[in-house]
Design brief:
six-stranded mixed beta sheet; about 20% helix; four-stranded antiparallel beta sheet; alpha+beta
Length: about 200
């Protein structure tokens, strides 16, 4: 599965949130849902288009058919796998795409321990589930982290809601693990759902 966004050229969007792209979109660089104002995408200057967040939309194959969507975890996992393939690193520093205060920004540090495993739990609907094993911790300063160096880490910038979702998802999955398996040195162990072809 490709990264968590796709590019749509600005000229191909007739209206965004009920307004022309040349007005509100160019000012705020965002695509918002008309109904709930959720962020669906952001403007990408290098591509002269909009990055549509796949995790924020549902797709209908034909008019009147049931809309299909996947969990945010699946797209986030795909993004991390893409970083591993292209940057050859399993160390990732996740930043807020638009931090309010860069001096106090909290960085989510990830150490991707295993890219593919299966697990079963009474808290999930279908077993076994496919996932990644991710060690994580928060920091306000990269510096030298316990257990590993982040000098060679790859940076990943996400919209604030996706970064928060990633952190919450990892924390929630960690609570499913046996107490003895939830921590490794100074790191918390979590699981991130991966795409399964049968989905």
């Amino acid at each position: 599965m490709p990264p968590h966004f796709t590019i749509v050229l600005a000229k191909d969007l007739e209206t965004v949130d009920g307004r022309a792209p040349s007005s509100r979109t160019q000012t705020h660089n965002r695509i918002l849902c008309k109904s709930c104002s959720a962020i669906l995408g952001t403007f990408d200057e290098s591509a002269s288009g909009f990055r549509i967040l796949k995790s924020s939309v549902a797709v209908q194959s034909t008019k009147g058919s049931t809309a299909e969507s996947f969990s945010k975890d699946v797209f986030l996992a795909a993004q991390l796998l893409s970083l591993i393939d292209h940057a050859s690193t399993r160390r990732v520093a996740v930043y807020d795409e638009r931090p309010i205060d860069t001096d106090k920004e909290t960085v989510l540090l990830l150490w991707i321990f295993s890219t593919d495993l299966r697990y079963s739990s009474s808290t999930v609907k279908r077993n076994p589930k496919r996932a990644m094993k991710v060690l994580f911790r928060k920091s306000v300063n990269l510096g030298e982290q316990p257990g590993m160096s982040f000098n060679t880490s790859e940076d990943l910038h996400l919209p604030s809601d996706l970064k928060d979702h990633l952190e919450h998802s990892l924390e929630t999955s960690s609570s499913m693990l046996p107490v003895s398996s939830r921590y490794f040195q100074e790191w918390t162990v979590g699981l991130l759902e991966r795409f399964q072809p049968e989905d």
